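Tokens in:
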């Protein structure tokens, strides 16, 4: 059994900074995706002349920006 452990390739170190950076990139991508969704919904609310939905969505957009 010890021989198997000796031949095992070394495991990469888990770098906390790399992990935090990856999390920041993912969070930014999700935020950008949500902003794009909201902008599309704002466009639709304008086409539908839905003032309440427009105001709700613009407020949501302000809160996440």
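Residues out:
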């Amino acid at each position: 059994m010890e021989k198997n452990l000796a031949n095992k390739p070394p495991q990469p170190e888990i770098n906390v900074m790399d992990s935090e950076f990856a999390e920041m990139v993912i969070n930014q991508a999700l935020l950008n995706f949500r902003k794009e969704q909201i902008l599309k919904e704002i466009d639709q609310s304008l086409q539908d002349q839905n003032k309440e939905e427009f105001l709700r969505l613009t407020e949501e957009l302000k809160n996440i920006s």
